[in-house]
Amino acid sequence: MCRAGQADLVVFDHDLAPVQIRNLERETGVRVIDRTELILDIFAHRARTRQAKLQVELAQLQYQLPRLRRLWTHLSRIEGGIGLRGPGEMQIEVDRRRARQRIGDLQASLEQIQRRKTQETLGRQEFFTVAMVGYTNVGKTALMNALTGERLFTENRLFATLDATTRSLQLPGGQTVLLTDTVGFIQNIPHHLVASFHATLEEVREADLLLHVVDASHPERRNQITSVERVLGELGCTDQPTVWVLNKCDLVDEGSLPKEQDQYEETVRTSAVKGTGLHLLKQSIEKLVHKQQVEIEIELPAAEGRVAAYIAEHGTILSREYQNAHVRLRAVLHPRHVARVKEMESELGSELEGPACS
Ligand SMILES: Nc1nc2c(ncn2[C@@H]2O[C@H](COP(=O)(O)OP(=O)(O)OP(=O)(O)O)[C@@H](O)[C@H]2O)c(=O)[nH]1
Ligand SMILES: [Mg+2]
Fold first, then answer.
1. How much distance in Å is there from the Cα of 305 to the middle of ligand 2?
2. Is ligand 1 within 6 A of the CB of residue 165?
3. Fold match between 127-290 and 293-351?
4. If you measure from the C-alpha of residue 164 to the centroid of ligand 2, how many angstroms do you get, rounded to a whole number?
5. What topology is assigned to 127-290 in CATH?
6. Is the CATH number of domain 2-109 3.40.50?
7. Hey, which of 48, 132, 155, 183 would you mutate to test ligand 1's pocket, going by the most ligand atoms within 8 Å of its Cβ?
8. Model confidence over 316-356: pLDDT tens digits?
9. Lowest-confidence range among 86-100, 131-145, 325-339?
10. Strands, DSSP E only, in the chain?
């Protein structure tokens, strides 16, 4: 086949052992790479931010480390002997040591970035967070753009996005949530990548709600869905409430859309390109946000604006009743926001009369 097709390169859709690659290269006379190497190459081309670049380099080095031998075995076999160390063998050791050193440096730099990000995330913790997950190229970034009016990079190719981007999204009831778009998944995702992209995937793990975006028009959509579910399982993301988003529905007939599934709390059909289903999607997100919220009643001085504004931003105000100089609010809020409201209330201290937040 190589000869007939005048191939310069053979890509195997499986992982190959170094010795398999060597034998195949000898038999075919062309360069042979496996699935992981191809995916790592694509990632390396796409990486833009410092964190993404470091993460890819780390994954590449960890992939190469056990394969370093292959360049040098012929030398060590010629020069080496019992009790002797050939130049080849020494070279491998030098290479390996360098690789390990670089791996250590990369891990340290990534940890540093991670610490800074954790600080940022702590600042954001006040907000309800929604993370988009899905197979690569299903339209996550396009959907993010359509929902938030952003203009992030989308393209019809694999792994257009390698970083996590977070934007605020206002729900129909007025509450603001944070929406995160991140790296797409792929079948048999190389485990080096999962490990290196730990920090990026952490955003998914910490989200309050997931949007599992599906390319409803893709002939392989069933397998893609299964792959994504598997990766989510590996990440330990099995408890988060999830909206199933059937995107690219402009490309399929109504009849051939996937059926709703019980494991997803909500199902919405969208087209990020045509802009359809976006309001329904926001409503579904809102519904699940409300599910995690509790109702509170609070009486505030009518002139006090800060607490009411906080409640409006993080929850939904159901009613306001004015009595003399006070306003009585009924609202729904996430328990962690209730805690903050109580704090703010006690900061208001003696100014506040009447029943406290209940
Ligand atoms: N027809 C149609 N095309 C869409 C829709 N949504 C996205 N696309 C196209 O699908 C391609 C991939 O979109 P992206 O938003 O980059 O996909 P992604 O899921 O972010 O992909 P990765 O970042 O690689 O994981 C682009 O060419 C989009 O224009 C849609 O609803 N309908
Ligand atoms: Mg993307």
1. 39
2. no
3. no
4. 9
5. Rossmann fold (3.40.50)
6. yes
7. 155
8. 888 999 988 889 999 999 888 898 898 888 887 645 444 44
9. 86-100
10. 9-12, 31-34, 128-134, 165-170, 176-181, 209-215, 242-247, 266-269, 294-301, 316-323, 326-333
